[in-house]
Amino acid sequence: MTPGGFTPEDWEKIRVVYEPMREKFAKLAASLPAEARPAVRFAAVSTEETDAS
Amino acid sequence: MSAVRTIAQMGADLRAKRVSCVELVDEALGRVDPQWNAFITMTADEAHAEARVLDQELARGIDRGPLHGIPTAHKDLMHTRGIRTTGGSKIFADFIPDADAPVVATLKKAGAVSIGKTNLHEFAYGITSVNPHYGAVRNPRDLTRIAGGSSGGSAAVVAGGALSFATGTDTGGSIRLPAGYCGCVGFKPPYGRISTDGVMPLGYTFDHIGPLAATVADAAISYAAMANVSVAMPEAGSLAGIRVGLPVNFYLENIDVEVGLAVRRAFQTVAALGAQIVEIEVPDIDGLNTAALWMLLCEAASVHRPHFDRLSEYGEDVRGLVNQGRLISGMDYVDGQRLRAVYCEQFRKLFETIDVLFTPVSPIAAPPIGQMTVELNGKPENVRLLSTRFMRAFNLTGLPALSLPCGKTATGLPIGLQIAGRAEDVELVLRVGAAIEAS
């Protein structure tokens, strides 16, 4: 049984790109500071701001 | 291939009665080279009908503003009432929306006349615009090369000189990359400035709408109309007091030699105009790209969930990406959003020390159609990941980013410069771009 129930052929195509990225992401997630909260509202952008006329 | 007139030039000709709206439509249609394969659907009849109404309005003294009678085209991701909207896919090949997307309606109300729906990467989920159902968009500068994507058709018609602007979407660089590869201007506004309603989504928290345009001024005019905001026209001139960030890490590493030279010339140009060049260290962009792509895979899988039973009708590359997204856990997605908050804060602090940041649009110029890997500095690189390496940060942070030509390779391929800034500094980003364009 392959992850996601993919056929072995499909899974092989997915795996070669998915697995390295998954490992990379897992390292990033492990480095998260405990105080980090999800960006439900972007910190860098306020959509309330408008361009000066 | 001759340069299209700017929006301002066409507007002046219209109001001086040297040309009519119908003639502008005919001119645009006549400039479209079928070899570009830039359109999925052309709407010449509808365009002529709209142009006739706009001519009558001008004759009666009704002037809708700078876009009155200006031809344009919409990426075929945007709902258009009564005109099929395929998303570049097979499964929506016959989909005819019953309403315009707000951005389409806004442009129509401003007087812009659409001549058709432009070709794109399937579902906007890729950077080549080599579409398995509607054929590859070809780069007007070199027909053997990709136009970039996913807004490849819009870039081709603008860079090819048929239109002064066209609409695009940008989830990981899909406006800026084709602009860079084809040699026109592309502007990704701050997140949320232009409504994504009625536009087929790819990644809900990464999707942006914006223009591809012949000049920075055309980008400013069309952006102002699309966002329904006032924007000061960007004028070239002194950049005294402007702090331009020169990244000492990541953005100028592992890039093609000619790209590096062209981008460094842009720094010299703005320095000569009085800008202060500030060397800065940018956040971990490689990690940021991984987090952004991980979340996008997940969001796109959610978007395509209703069609999981029809994935066999998708192109192989898009099907592969959707399938990858199906494997990502909710826990990973939440952690991705937590990482996003960290990166956004790092960029907020970065922009306390600079006003704009310069980077290449892409480490390379447009690769040949069908080439999946390129060799860069002796190492094979995946074209998709390489091409979007410098752009994804501004989808994750939602900050505005402009792409404009800054040089050419020895073989004549365009090289793009990316200028990013704070969310509230759209006008500054455009002004710096106009200064480089004029030099």
Give structural notes.
With 53 residues, chain A is mainly α. Chain A has one helix and no strands. Chain A has one helix spanning 8-30. Chain A starts with 7 loop residues before the first helix and ends in a 23-residue tail after the last helix. The model of chain A has no long low-confidence stretch (mean pLDDT 78). Chain B has 439 residues and is of the alpha+beta class. Chain B is built from 14 helices and 17 strands. Chain B has helices spanning 7-15, 21-31, 44-59, 102-109, 152-159, 176-182, 216-227, 257-272, 285-304, 316-326, 330-353, 383-387, 393-396, 426-438; strands at 39-42, 71-75, 113-118, 130-131, 135-136, 138-139, 142-146, 165-170, 185-188, 208-213, 243-247, 276-280, 356-360, 373-376, 379-382, 401-408, 414-421. Chain B has an eight-stranded mixed beta sheet. In chain B, strands 1-3-2 form a three-stranded mixed beta sheet. Chain B starts with 6 loop residues before the first helix and ends with a helix. Classes of the chains: A mainly alpha (53), B alpha+beta (439). Chain A binds chain B through residues 3-4, 6, 10, 13-14, 17-18, 21, 24-25, 28-29, 32-33, 36-40, 42-47, 49-53, and chain B through 190-193, 224, 227, 229-232, 287, 290-291, 293-294, 320, 323-324, 326-327, 332, 334-342, 344-345, 347-348, 397-399, 422-424, 426-427.
